[in-house]
Amino acid sequence: MELTANKTILRIETWHGLMLTALFAAGWTSKVLDPTAILIGGVFMGLNFLLLGYGIASLITPLASRGRIKAGIGLLVLKIFIFLGLLSTVFFRFNIDALSFAVGFSTLLVAIVVESIRTTVKSGN
Description:
Structural class: mainly alpha
Number of strands: 0
Order of helices and strands: HHHH
Shape: flat
Radius of gyration: 17 Å
Number of helices: 4
């Protein structure tokens, strides 16, 4: 994978970690959101993003260069099913507040937007 993409992924994960820490602390002091569910949602999304950014991409690129695109797509589909299974297990097996989980889950999306805005402002476009 390209060096710029690696740096971007790391910056997004840094923003994600900072926002997740702030939300965890806010959830800890308030009674509105469950801090454990916030953390689980954020970690779930961060791990998914890292696997997609590093693990799957590093597997798909060599497979595609050898003409084995179907194998790469199969691995991506497998990752999606594994994460959907884990998500189902988290909600049906444990008593987790869905709203707090969604807040933690959304921190990665906000981190992507923040990094995109930061990059656009920095480049002057």
